[in-house]
Design brief:
17% of the residues lie in helices and 25% in strands. It has 298 residues and is of the alpha+beta class.
Length: 298
């Protein structure tokens, strides 16, 4: 984890089957199945003169410029976050803020409308911040997480009475997963210990290998797609340049077999660079880039 500024953190980590508190209330997504980065650049904020961003406002010291937090928020007191510097029509009189020591911030989220300059990382507001989204702005909806059970008989070759009170067997199981040929990912479908494993290789061979260390509920399925090693290697390549590209977060999506990347601005240059960096491991269809700024509805 690297500090964006002295008080702000942009975290780029593995977000598979987990969640960070993200301050962005909306985003523009580039559909990896819809076309090339150049063709989809208009879907991001770069194609419009004004954009919409949302988040909490943070000021680290009285002399520092306020920022609109658009990445992960560390829930300390005071909270820690960062984003583009606010300029133009910004006033603390327009928001409800809290102060602790020299730090000033809003606990609420605000919508801003204005011009974003990527080079200076500055969001120049053309109107005051508001708790109400601009008219016509599409609000994203969170898709419910689904962790399906992949087989009808999860105790095939196992023991229905199996228990692992100290989780020692589960630790061995997790270690064995990494040795599987073509390991893509895994999840628990019962909230406890019914493991579902996806591989590109022989599922029966993977099942037999896992049964050597795990007698509990287990399903193994074969799918085509990038392996966990490929996804993590691609993510690592992006981690090296996350600040230059304005990357807020990234992580493998086991269910879809793709790498999800959230950036401040999904302009053509950013999209092309992301695809260039991950090309040794992933195709464009295996990467979804989401821009936090959205075009202002006409």
């Amino acid at each position: 984890m690297s500090a964006r500024r002295s008080h702000a953190t942009r975290a780029v980590g593995v977000l598979a089957l987990g969640a960070l508190v993200l301050s962005a209330c909306g985003s523009a997504t580039v559909d990896p199945d819809a076309g090339s980065p150049g063709e989809e650049a208009a879907a991001g904020a770069a194609g419009r003169s004004q954009v919409v961003g949302a988040g909490m406002v943070m000021q680290s010291t009285p002399g520092a410029a306020p920022e609109l937090c658009m990445g992960p928020v560390l829930t300390s007191y005071p909270p820690q976050c960062g984003g583009p510097t606010l300029a133009g029509a910004f006033s603390w009189d327009d928001v409800e803020a809290e102060t602790q020591g020299e730090v000033r911030w809003t606990n609420g989220y605000y919508y801003g409308v204005g011009h974003y300059d990527k080079a200076s990382d500055t969001f120049t507001l053309t109107r005051p911040l508001s708790v109400t989204p601009p008219e016509g702005l599409e609000q994203p909806t969170d898709e419910p997480l689904d962790f399906p059970q992949l087989c009808d008989d999860p105790f095939r070759g196992g023991d229905p009475g199996f228990s692992d009170p100290d989780l020692a067997k589960q630790e061995m199981f997790q270690q064995r997963l990494q040795s599987l040929e073509g390991y893509i990912g895994s999840w628990v479908s019962d909230g406890r210990s019914l493991f579902n494993v996806v591989v590109t290789g022989d599922p029966e061979a993977a099942h037999a290998s896992l049964r050597e260390v795990w007698a509990g509920a287990l399903c193994v399925e074969q799918r085509e797609g990038p392996t966990e090693a490929d996804l993590l290697a691609a993510q690592g390549a992006l981690n090296d340049v996350y600040q230059d590209l304005g990357i807020l977060s990234s992580g493998p999506d086991v269910m879809s077999g793709r790498l999800d990347v959230q950036v401040v601005l999904a302009d053509e240059a950013t999209l092309e660079r992301v695809h260039e960096l991950v090309a040794p491991w992933l195709t464009p269809e295996q990467v979804r880039v989401t821009g936090t700024f959205q075009p202002l509805p006409e």
